[in-house]
Amino acid sequence: MVPRIALTAGEPAGIGPDLVAMLAAAGSPAEVVVIADPGLIASRARMLGIALDIVPYRHAAAPAPSPPGRLLVEARPLGTPVQAGRLAAANADYVLDTLRRAATGCLAGEFAAMVTAPVHKGVINDAGIAFSGHTEFLAALTGAAQPVMLLVAGTLRVALLTTHLPLRAVPDAITGERIESVVRVLDAGLRTGFGIARPRIAVLGLNPHAGESGHLGSEEREVIEPALVRLRAAGLPISGPLPADSAFTPGALAHCDAVLAMYHDQGLPVLKHAGFGHAVNVTLGLPIVRTSVDHGTALELAGTGRADAGSLHAALGLAADIARRRHA
To answer: Burial of 226 by CB count in 10 Å (0-12 exposed, 13-18 middle, 19+ buried)?
Structure first.
């Protein structure tokens, strides 16, 4: 199977267009269709000294591997001209339009998966559009009740119970219902997307030392542990709640296939330390396959040639693998 994968170029002033050009120069065993302004990609490729043959995308053709130097593009016009490194709120609608096109194409079966370059949440909000991230946006667009953010770096997999929330809002967002729902989505995603027949999931506590028997917080005893008891009774091999400061040691990780962190900065610093620049963000719980890079827009690197396309290469490869597994 040669999967046809939609690739969105992300924030036009950031490194997304650079990464797209670099990816196209290398080629891919999948068919990559970039949803972007072709003039933007061509301009950034020239800045980087990359020769590209940009070809309009035609859905009728059967998918074929993308040869080096050839780039299929479905044109979406920018809202305003782009200068590398300089954000423009007038391009917020353009960014979201590329995401809608990729997602609806996946829902229709036109694309086997979508891969996203980084967007800049702040400039989208500056344009008057409420936007907290790809995960939440795609969940609303596809009607997914419980999206789950999973970061992958080699064999290390870290999922998040809560995503883009202020730290003070996290305890109230941790409920037994949410824990059960997220664990079930994570379990299903590891089975179907990663081929793990019986996933072992380690669940972290919220507080230091996982609450220290209630002396450092009650969330573990009152909310997390009862939810895990119910999940174990349903036959899921779940461990926890575990102290976050020791859960990522090699010995502990040897006994699990994924770690579920309670909040964004509890789990992701470890993951990014282990694999930054080559890790992949996977959104589980959607009716489509979506992966992304593990980094931001890096405005200061746009157009300089110093950006690293490693994470985008990994995201494309993992999207293709998951798509093939789902198709098998």
So the answer is: middle
